[in-house]
Amino acid sequence: MIINMVEGATEAEIQHIIDSVVLCGYQPHVIRGTERTIVAAVGSGGNRAQLEALKSAPGVEDAIAISHPFKLVSRQVRKESSVVDVAGVKVGGEHIVIIAGPCSVESREQMLETAIGVKKAGARMLRGGAYKPRTSPYDFQGLGVEALKILAEARKVTGLPVVTEVMSTEDVDLISEYADVLQVGARNMQNFALLRRLAKAERPILLKRGPSATVKEWLLAAEYLLAGGNSQVILCERGIKTFETELRNTFDLAAIALAKELSHLPVIADPSHGTGRRSLVSATSKAAIAVGADGLIVEVHPCPERALSDGPQSLTLAGFSAMVQSLSQPLRRVAELEMAATA
Ligand code: PEP
Ligand code: MN
Q1: For a 10 Å CB count at each end of the chain, is N or C smaller?
Q2: pLDDT by residue (tens digit) across 76-96?
Q3: What are the residue ranges of helices labelled H in 145-208?
Q4: Contact by Cβ (8 Å): 205, 179
Q5: What is the pTM of this model?
Q6: How many CB atoms lie within 10 A of CB 273?
Q7: Of the bound ligands, which one is closest to the alpha carbon of residue 308?
Q8: Measuring from each residue's beta carbon to the nearest atom of ligand 1, which residues come in under 6 Å?
């Protein structure tokens, strides 16, 4: 249930609603917007009828039952889009934010060359895996702490904030010392112990959609973070499993538009994992932006053929630069409109 306070509701009226929500057996979450305050009543098993009766309490404009199972991430709770501020880089604001870097941090030289190159080309954040979720235990697993130190150096050299994946609750504190954003990988989207722990972390979270997760499940995973106290969440579509075998994943563009419609959280797109093919990254990036993505996370390697993970989907530095340039070019025009304009 969402309790919408009137514009200019007094602090006493807001506090009365917060106290009443608790008395009804729900947890109150207060969202203070520029114009009005909203109190979301979260939980189950409370007295719903008593809660609905708060519609007539002083200072309340309306109380709306929520049809979706997620609440705090919902646009019904917060109409304005949320902006996640990562060390001054605003994700979900006016501009598209591009995050770029290698799949895995492999060496100091590789990471620094990539970081300097992608910054020059227009990236506003760096990525690089230190702890890698690999399908096979025999594949490169990441350099761990050594990679975190290299990422911190790349941030120092470029001034760009760093995103890296956290796979385990045990690593959260350590990774938080080095990284600006903690990535929850696709395979961990429903690792509820990890989500609960990250809800208490003092870092924004980049939450990837699971390869077989519905949009509802994805938003419910984000709900764990918000309900636990961390509202700094960026959603990331990275492709899902379908019957298609020519592509690594099926990049679900409609899910980006749907997530933007259902949720106020910023949504970014990962066309690298979404397609698995370097040749498709630029085109699908444009498509993602066209459907409303707030940013991109793209894999870039100075020499993809030597990459220890995800070489076939990694752009070269020159390829990345060309892609960023092409993103600013307008889409093709619709024929009729062109004719009307020249008539
Ligand atoms: C990655 O970002 O390199 C990664 C492993 O992503 P995902 O969890 O989407 O597969
Ligand atoms: Mn990767």
Answers
A1: C
A2: 889 999 999 999 999 999 999
A3: 145-158, 172-178, 192-198
A4: no
A5: 0.87
A6: 24
A7: 2
A8: 103, 129, 133, 185-187, 208, 238, 273
